[in-house]
Specification:
The protein has a seven-stranded antiparallel beta sheet with strand order 2-15-3-10-5-6-9. The protein has a six-stranded mixed beta sheet with strand order 28-31-30-21-34-35, with no helix packed on it. A five-stranded antiparallel beta sheet has the order 8-7-4-13-14, with no helix packed on it. The protein is mainly beta.
């Protein structure tokens, strides 16, 4: 992997000194036995967890359970919800899980804004996390009336920042204690202050922290009681192939972080120098580009994550049979895109800002359309089949996408960070998708049997090439995760299913 010499010099300083001299700007403490790569683990248990979609649109409620399967060590966990349009931070907290602990919450729409509610007894920072999602990062102005719709869909990041081994005051504070009524409650009120960063490894140990060892798993559900529907799934789990770094930042906003200091912690082009347009706060860190293994720059961490998720194609099935009123929505989430490209709402019109050294999303495959970033595709990238071997290899005029966004090249394009595709259900400009009720970044694909025909393939499967930008000796692919959600709308009770996208690493290469 190509390294920037200056970035490596800075990262080396971080590994040996923490952030000494940079007050309250977060900490990266390098593991002495670092890994060299990140990988998706089939066990579903890891250090980094990704929930590809949540929604409170159209009566949906999204539930989340995070479990610490480590029965020895506690975990300091960063939880962040990001918006579907452009990965903007809309809610983030720190959770302290004791050994074997589980934290649960639900997110629903209250007065038009996604709002999290939990009765869980695990310690959190802040202490009260039952609040509505924030809107300040969604446009140039923090106007709730204008921005609240941007909180209703998106995806979730979960990161093991550090372990909390037995023996410290911090461990004692987060360890659940049996109460007189038989419940178990953590004495969080006795937790030592966490408003300062960690100078170095001895300081981290003294405070009760150690290198993260993973062991996290998460399950999610999207439930709609009004429509008697529910979908469930497990988070995509990422692990390093060696030791992980401590990546801690205070969960507070009192101190601002300079763009230069932010550049040591993130590749987000809106937070990091030289392209920063937002004032970073301590709660912005860590994110998924904060150096998690070895002595590397944030953009290299982002590339590692992208490579772990990259696929050359996405394949799944769809059902739209009119006999039982079936409908199908597909989701496409790109959780590393923010560390390659972002949208600056402070300009008019909003402008695309690229991370220095970004590779997976660049001007070669990205287009701005209104207030969303779109990843381009071509007609020939897509082919679909019915259930009887009928094959449609697409070409211009070979299928119809609605609504077709002005300024986007013809074809199936991934607009928004978490894009939803529905099948054989032409969408008006303000019409939600039939299964998930998606509104922020959605489109319809009309599966014509022949170009211009009113006859469509109602059931079958589809494959989309996602080669992305070219690398050396292959393609980088696109880091995409998601599912096919199918439901029989004609029945009052839920009847349908959810299937993960099938992916391919054929000819996929890492950033050189």
């Amino acid at each position: 992997m190509k390294k920037n010499v200056l970035a490596l010099s800075i990262a080396a300083m971080i590994g040996s000194l923490g952030f000494a001299g940079v007050a309250s700007a977060g900490t990266v403490i390098t593991n002495p036995a670092p890994g060299a790569a990140l990988e998706v683990t089939p066990t579903g248990i890891g250090h980094i967890l990704l929930v590809p979609y949540f929604s409170t649109q159209n009566g949906n409620v999204s539930l989340l359970n995070i479990t610490n399967t480590d029965q020895t060590n506690g975990k300091a966990v960063k939880l962040r919800y990001r918006g579907a349009a452009n990965s903007d931070d809309i809610y983030d907290i720190t959770i302290y899980l004791s050994p074997g602990d589980m934290w649960s919450a639900n997110v629903s729409q209250v007065d038009g804004v996604s709002t999290l509610v939990t009765n869980d007894n695990s310690c959190t920072l802040p202490a009260d996390v039952n609040v509505r999602f924030g809107t300040a990062r969604l446009t140039a102005e923090d106007s709730l009336a204008d921005n609240k719709a941007g909180t209703l869909e998106g995806y979730i990041e979960i990161l093991n920042m550090a372990d909390v081994p037995p023996g410290s005051a911090l461990y004692t504070s987060i360890k659940h204690v049996k109460q007189a009524d038989g419940s178990y409650v953590a004495p969080c009120a006795t937790m030592p202050s966490q408003k300062t960063d960690l100078a170095d490894y001895p300081a981290a140990q003294a405070r009760g922290y150690d290198y993260p060892t993973g062991g996290l798993m998460a399950n999610w559900s999207i439930i709609n009681l009004d429509k008697a529907g529910s979908f469930t799934g497990d988070a995509t789990a990422i692990i390093p192939d060696g030791g992980a770094n401590i990546v801690f930042s205070p969960q507070e906003e009192e101190a601002t972080v300079t763009a230069a200091a932010a550049a040591l912690l993130t590749a987000d082009p809106l937070l990091a120098a030289p392209t920063a347009t937002l004032t970073a706060k301590n709660y912005d860190f860590p994110d998924l580009s904060t150096p998690y293994i070895g002595v590397i720059a944030p953009i290299d961490q982002a590339h590692m994550l992208s490579h772990a998720l990259a696929t050359a194609s996405i394949t799944n099935e769809y059902m739209t049979s009119p006999d039982v009123g079936f409908a199908t929505d597909w989701t496409f989430s790109m959780p590393s895109r923010r560390y390659n490209v972002a949208l600056n709402y402070k300009t008019s019109p909003a402008s695309v800002v690229y991370a220095t050294g970004g590779a997976y999303f660049t001007a070669a495959n990205v287009t701005r359309v209104g207030d969303q970033i779109c990843v381009n595709s071509k007609f020939e990238d897509l082919e679909y089949f019915n259930t009887e071997e009928g094959k449609k290899t697409t070409k211009p005029g070979g299928y119809v996408v609605s609504p077709q966004r002005p300024g986007v090249k013809p074809g199936l394009n991934f607009c928004g960070e978490t894009s939803v595709l529905t099948f054989n259900n032409p969408l008006a400009e303000d019409q939600a998708t039939p299964v998930l009720g998606a509104l922020i970044a959605r489109q319809n694909l009309q599966m014509e049997s022949t170009a211009g025909s009113t006859d469509v393939y109602t059931d079958g499967w589809m494959s989309i090439k996602t080669a992305g930008n070219p690398g050396v000796g292959g393609d980088l692919g696109l880091p995409v995760i998601g599912h096919s959600f199918a439901k029989a709308l004609a029945f009052s009770a839920s009847l349908g299913g959810i299937w993960k996208h099938r992916t391919s690493t054929t000819n996929i290469v890492a950033v050189p």
